[in-house]
Structure formats: structure tokens, C-alpha cells
Amino acid sequence: xxxxxxxxxTKDPYLFGINLDMSPQDFIAADRLISCTKAGCTGIDFExxxxxxxxxxxxxxxxxxxxxxxx
Length: 71
Description:
This protein is an all-alpha fold. The protein contains three helices and no strands. The radius of gyration is 14 Å and the shape is elongated.
């Protein structure tokens, strides 16, 4: 259970958020940008594709999720 104190955009997030310049916070954003382009995404689909990590668990969140399943 990821509480509000670990929501995206908090001081200790367990989820990927988005930066003030609208760039994604994950470590594979550059690779995903290439994939979005190769997939032929355009318009709003391209914008969504670039930021697909938003709301998904970051490293801390993935560990918390795994520990909740396999204590």
C-alpha cells in the first residue's frame, strides 16, 4: 500500500511523476522516446507515450510492492 506520503510529486515518492518542464522522471525516458518515434506515435499519443512512466512504481515503489506481496 503506497500511502499519500509516497505519492508522485512528494518529497519521498514511490511512483514516477513528472518534472516541472513536463519531462518524465524515469531512467529509461530517452530509450522510450526512441521507441515512441519508431512506433509512429504522433500528436497526443506521442505526448502520452513519452510520459508513460508517470504513476508507475519507481525503484522504492517496486521494492515496497514486492515486500507487500512477499513479506
